[in-house]
Amino acid sequence: MKEKIVIANCGGFWGDDPTAAKRQVEGGPIDYLVMDYLAEVTMAILQKQKAKRPELGYAADFLAQLRDVLPQCVEKDITIISNAGGVNPLACRDAVNALAEELGIADQVKVGVVLGDDIYPDLDAILENEPLAHMDTGAPLSDVRDDVMSANVYLGAKPVVEALRLGANVVISGRVSDTGVTLAPMIHEFGWAEDDWNRLASGIVAGHIIECGTQCTGGNFTDWHLVKNHENIGYPMVEVSPDGSFVVTKHPGTGGLVSVHTVSEQLLYEMGDPAYISPDCIAYFNTISLEQAGPDRVAVSGVQGSPAPEKFKVSISFEQGFRAFGRLMVSGPDARRKAEHVSEVFWKSAGGRDHYADTLTQYVGHDSCHPSVTDGEPSEILLQVAARDDDRGKLANDFAPQLVPKVLSTVPGITYLADQGRPRPSGVVGYWPALISRDALKVRVEVGETKLDVGQEWLAGEAAALAAPEAPTGTPGPTKRVRLAELCLARSGDKGDTCNVGVIARSPEIYAWLVEYLTAERVKEYFGAMVKGGVDRFEVPNLLALNFLLHESLGGGGTLSLLLDAQGKTYAQYLLHMEVDAWASICG
Questions:
Q1: Which of 263, 465, 517, 547 could be 538's S-S partner, Cβ–Cβ 3.0 to 4.6 Å?
Q2: What is the DSSP string of 392-423?
Q3: What are phi and psi of 129, to 5 degrees?
């Protein structure tokens, strides 16, 4: 057994830095290179590609990155794991084999493929026994069956482990979970048992930290000014020990920053309840211990886990109408008043707001993502109008033609964007989360001529008996009016139509005040009309953090949303601008 393995991430989404793989391979010693390409909308796009051309349906960028690194990975004995297979892992395998042949290393490349996550071809048969009810509304999938575009199960690490066991040095999967591609090599190398919940949970935490690429190495970081260099920012790596403890780091000489705070922010990203559910186990984020172990090195330990849920999550996409966006630049004196006037004239000429299922006007540069945080008014505003409807004709014939003419027929100081012009309607992809029984799946691994069925049996076990983490205490006293940003850091992201905002106190004393002051009710009041649903709050004292879920805050989420910030990326910064009454003793 190895004393340590190094797993390097080189991508957090389809479209991430195409040079990352090469930089990770050339930057220093690593054992595994992992990359994540898939999101809910991505699966629908790939399914459309496959329907038109059966040889497509996978992330083509994967091949471009492999061209840069495959020979070096073979030479250095680096194993590659990715879910780039999308909805056609076998075609992706064939493309990798062809690339290896072209590069003259076909005899040294052994590709493993994980199959079984894509249930779209068998959906009708599955629906005879599984309703695939919407996890939030309870509605059966049959309500939208005719509009379904893709259906993929979030598989865990187990089939990837089997591919590694069969000798694959390139593993391609479809919708294996983001954390699963990182957990699998740990199980394979260290021989962890399927019910070793604490070690598995530690692997899940490691995967969650690095799955979004540079978001844990200084990217999207509240204290961005502390990051000495954003150029050539280092992608993350984890150095994992057999007991499950690990160190988060990056290659020497790269830009970015790895600190307790950068890692804490990423841990809270897209997190809900601290009991984090994955296909492999439940990992308790309120048991994680972080320690700065040197420059750009954060040690992670103490993670506890419990058995995985009985059912797997299914990500289903379906057609849900169309949407279109139009933008005009309005500048000069009275920019806001002029933009409002243009908006009013536009909507009247486009048939009125009631003519469409949903509409939205936003003033980019002033209050498009959230209410303005300054008293002044900008000298120029990007006016954005958007509409959504089931009838594409309304958007193409009533909405789109009425925008550009306003440049000549309304106010002075107005122009259209050279790369946009007339708005173009595009299809809206709805997201349908559901649960499916494990025994409904047929998961298979193929490595060379070997084909192996991989059972997905549920392992029962007792939930972890967790001791309640101790929260820091403080002594209330006189208060001082300050911005929350002076006391805390924050990170936000999307979970469908719910925005997650994690807030981290800069000291234990500040956390004691934060728990008392920043209630769910206060957060909902601050966001106002931006949050149409309720707000949940979770305490994570080991990270000195509070995690908030802002329900119905992203305009439906995904491509259904007309918001400029449909992923909630700006919500944390807006919350940090809140004026708070803090204990004077904790204010600098």
A1: 547
A2: HHIIIIIIGGGSTTHHHHS-SSEEE-TTT-S-
A3: -120, -20
Burial bucket for residue 420 (CB in 10 Å: 0-12, 13-18, 19+): middle
Contacting residues for 337 by C-beta, under 8 A, at least 6 apart: none
Given a contact cutoff of 8 angstroms between Cβ atoms, the answer to whether 75 and 109 are in contact is no
DSSP string for residues in 215-254: GGTTTT-TTGGG-S--TTBPPPEEEE-TTS-EEEE--TT-
What percent of the chain lies above the pLDDT cut of 90? 80
State residue 234 phi and psi, 5-degree precision: -75, 135
Two tokens at 391? Answer: 């009838």
- For residue 42, give the H/E element and its range: helix 40-52
DSSP 184: H
Q: Calculate the alpha carbon distances from 189 to 1, 23, 35, 158, 199 in Å.
A: 7, 24, 19, 13, 13
Q: What is the rounded CA–CA span in Å between residue 370 and residue 528?
A: 10
The CA angle 50-53-58, to the nearest 5 degrees, is 45
Pairing between β-strand 5-9 and β-strand 237-240 as defined by DSSP bridges: antiparallel
Residue 375's CB is within 10 A of a number of other CB atoms, namely 5
* DSSP state, residue 514: H
209, pLDDT greater than 60: yes
Given the structure tokens 């690429």, which residue do they identify? 213
> Positive or negative, the Cα torsion across 468, 474, 475, 477?
negative
pLDDT in tens, 97-154: 999 999 999 999 999 999 999 999 999 999 999 999 999 899 999 999 999 988 999 9
The 10s digit of each residue's pLDDT in 532-586 is 999 999 999 999 999 999 999 988 887 788 888 888 899 999 999 999 999 999 9
Rounded to whole angstroms, the Cα distance separating 196 from 199 reads: 6
Q: Please name which of 456, 436, 583 lies closest in space to residue 162, comparing C-alpha atoms.
A: 456
- In one-letter notation, the amino acid at residue 77 is D
Query: What stretches of 458-568 show up as alpha helix (H) in DSSP?
Result: 508-517, 520-527
Helices (H) and strands (E) in the chain, counts: 15, 26
- Contacts of residue 32, defined as CB under 8 A and 6 or more positions apart, other chains included, come to 5, 6, 7, 8, 78, 79, 80, 81, 185
